[in-house]
Amino acid sequence: MLKDRDADLPEQVMWEGRFITAKTRGRWEYVGRARGIRAAAIIALDRDPDGTAHVILVSQYRVPLSRFSLEIPAGLIGDDEGKQGEDALTAAARELEEETGYRAGSLEVLGEFYSSPGMVSECFTLLKATALTRVSEGGGTEGENITVHRVALRDLSRFVAEWRRAGHAVDVRIAMLLTPGYLGED
What is the number of alpha carbons within 13 Å of residue 108 lying toward its C-beta? Predict the structure, then answer.
């Protein structure tokens, strides 16, 4: 494989904030997480007593998009003071419960992924949460105003289409859930 002609040029930090850093390398402009912060994203699956599979999704207003966005639960790893060494499993368990009100009996790492590699250097760890127990209403931490959606997997395509028709955004990670057989669920 051939590397890009700018691959070995020095990286320049143009601006650094609390959570993101704007960088350049040759002709490329991109952003990354500041301070080595990473992210965890969770595919949370729940089952009814009859075996019907559901996915737990969240929505919230996203200022960069100027609209509401449908997403899988996710959050930052090691972003809080004193949590710099936090691991993905610990962060995912915390974020799932904060955002959705569900606690996972099992968390499985599915791998590391990149959401927009031409513009963002951020890598996120994707996890699958199962054996869920509802322990609170969720909604996130103060000011996040997260809405929780429990959607039957068999109805997900329709749910996403209705969400789009309403003029809302859909996170790219939802596409994984729309791929037949990706999760091995119905």
Answer: 9
- Pick the catalytic residue from 142, 144, 162, 185: 142
CA distance 57 to 8: 40
Known catalytic residue at 142: yes
CB 20 within 8 A of CB 154: no
CATH H-level, domain 39-178: superfamily? Nucleoside Triphosphate Pyrophosphohydrolase (3.90.79.10)
Q: How far apart are CA 7 and CA 137, in angstroms?
A: 46
**Contacts of residue 35, Cβ cutoff 8 Å, sequence gap at least 6:** 79, 84
For the chain, the farthest-separated pair of C-alpha atoms sits apart, in whole angstroms, at: 57
Q: What is the pTM of this model?
A: 0.90
Which residues of the chain are in CATH 3.90.79.10 domains? 39-178
Q: Is 30 helix (H, G, I), strand (E, B) or coil?
A: strand
- Residue 186 in this model has a pLDDT that exceeds 60: no
Burial degree of 39 (CB within 10 A; 0-12, 13-18, 19+): buried
In this predicted model, what pLDDT tens digit does every residue of 2-17 receive, in sequence order? Answer: 899 999 999 999 999 9
